[in-house]
Amino acid sequence: MADYRLVAEPRTEFGKGSARRTRRAGRIPAVLYGHGQDVVHLSLPALEFAAVLRNGGTNALVTVVLDGTEHLALTKAVQRDPLTRTHEHVDLLAVRRGEKTTVEVPLVVVGEPGVDAITNHQLNTVSIEADATALPEAIEVDVTGRTAGQNITAGDLVLPRGATLITDPEALVIGFLGAPTAEALEAELAEAEAEAGIEREESAPAEEGTGEGDVVPEPQDQGSGESIESTQNS
């Protein structure tokens, strides 16, 4: 995986006012912790950090340069503004090369299931333990040709070499259901209407001797029964 480099600045002022000033200056308030060391308060360049997340994902390995000293770190938490989605605060975990760490890895679905299968997604991420310098950006889940009942569990996933699954192997990742038939959909609709107290209107039966699409002539006025000729002679 790529190793990104960010030049940090120390923070000596704290509180909401200080944080707002830091963000106005184009930087993000952050903390660095881990390995029993004291929490280090710093700030990161906002645009460069956004590029790290965009290109490397949330598990990107970052070299933080602070006062000339390099610290290897992983992003553990990011706070965003709910409206602007800008980064407001970052928690960084210090790591060492060769050590194991536990992270949540996103799942990416590839392929298309069978034509009669409906997918039921249950998990979007799984937890794994892996070398801090070899964390995957994502894990692919291949659903090609899967049919009803051919479910995929966490234990079925192909993990990177050296990684250990922490999520329960029996946890359902994607289930596959059979597509309902027209009869089943009609029965389900009828049941729903019955539960809602909706009565279906029965279509009126066609008149005997009249087939569908036949034209029924308009009834003619029979009058008094006298012919035109007899009326004129009267």
Describe the protein's architecture and organization.
The protein has four helices and 13 strands. By secondary structure, it is α+β, with helices and mostly antiparallel strands. The protein has a six-stranded mixed β-barrel with strand order 1-3-2-6-5-4. Strands 10-7-9-12 form a four-stranded mixed β-sheet, with no helix packed on it. The longest helix is centred in the C-terminal third of the chain and has 14 residues, at about 180-195. Mean pLDDT is about 85; it is low at about 225-234.
Q: What is the topology?
A:
Layout: E1 3-10, H1 16-24, E2 27-34, E3 37-45, H2 46-56, E4 61-66, E5 69-80, E6 87-94, E7 100-110, E8 117-121, E9 125-131, E10 139-142, E11 152-153, E12 164-165, E13 172-178, H3 182-195, H4 228-233
Parallel strand pairs: 1-4, 2-6, 7-10
Antiparallel strand pairs: 1-3, 2-3, 4-5, 5-6, 7-9, 8-13, 9-12, 11-13
